[in-house]
């Protein structure tokens, strides 16, 4: 399984980077809902992040 985050917009990517979320493991630790309040993280980015966490291994 890849540990890379999905392709999301630049503002969301910057917000995640500033929050210390750089990999799927980081995202699992924090949880996507905790990122919902960050400036730059919108509904589409949250959907993509949740989908990445739910994807079967190997995708």
From TrEMBL:
Origin: domain of life: Bacteria
SUPFAM superfamilies per record: C-terminal domain of RNA polymerase alpha subunit
UniProt cross-references to Gene3D superfamilies, sorted A to Z: 5' to 3' exonuclease, C-terminal subdomain
Name this protein carries in UniProt: DNA-binding protein
Natural source organism: Curtobacterium flaccumfaciens
């Amino acid at each position: 399984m890849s540990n890379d985050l999905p392709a999301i917009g630049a503002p969301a990517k910057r917000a995640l980077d500033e929050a210390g979320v750089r990999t799927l493991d980081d995202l699992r630790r924090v949880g996507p809902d905790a990122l919902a309040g960050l400036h730059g993280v919108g509904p589409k980015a949250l959907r993509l992040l949740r989908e990445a966490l739910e994807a079967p291994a190997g995708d």
